[in-house]
């Protein structure tokens, strides 16, 4: 069994493939206190300290990232499952889905034309979108901190 001590000395390295066939390298480490951190070689991670790859992996969607080796799958789960990083990843996943849903409502309201009812509907949808986006922004900040091995 892989212990957190092993991971601190020798990080788990995963080669992932994304939707357009590119490959990236994700590194998973656990410190002596068991805090798990993850980094990715992609541009978004370099720019923002988080990326969809890390969220998908921490949400245990390893197959979506092109990981089919059951041994790698098991080792990753052993390290990440049940950690605050996994919880933060599920939270951001949910909140980003809420943003998409609210943005769709705004887009629909805009197609209705400039009537008074349409403007009321648009105002409500836009307020909901703003709230969802603020929540997603907070959740991203928490996830980014977790992925860096920090705590809230
Ligand atoms: Zn990435």
Automatic annotation (TrEMBL):
This is SWIM-type domain-containing protein. Keywords: Metal-binding, Zinc, Zinc-finger. The keyword Zinc applies. Residues 26-62 form the SWIM-type domain. It comes from Saliniramus fredricksonii. It comes from the Bacteria. GO terms for molecular function: zinc ion binding.
């Amino acid at each position: 069994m892989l212990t957190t001590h092993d991971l601190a000395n020798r990080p788990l390295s995963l080669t992932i493939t994304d939707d357009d066939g590119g490959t990236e390298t994700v590194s998973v480490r656990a410190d002596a206190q068991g805090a798990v951190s993850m980094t990715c070689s992609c541009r978004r991670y370099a720019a923002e300290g988080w990326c969809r790859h890390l969220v998908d992996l921490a949400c245990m969607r390893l197959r979506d990232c092109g990981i089919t080796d059951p041994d790698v799958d098991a080792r990753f789960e052993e390290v990440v499952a049940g950690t605050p990083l996994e919880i933060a990843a599920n939270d951001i996943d949910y909140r980003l889905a809420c943003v998409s849903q609210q943005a769709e409502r705004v887009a629909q309201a805009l197609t209705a034309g400039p009537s008074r009812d349409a403007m009321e509907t648009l105002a409500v949808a836009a307020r909901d979108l703003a709230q969802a986006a603020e929540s997603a922004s907070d959740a991203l900040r928490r996830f980014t901190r977790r992925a860096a091995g920090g705590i809230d």
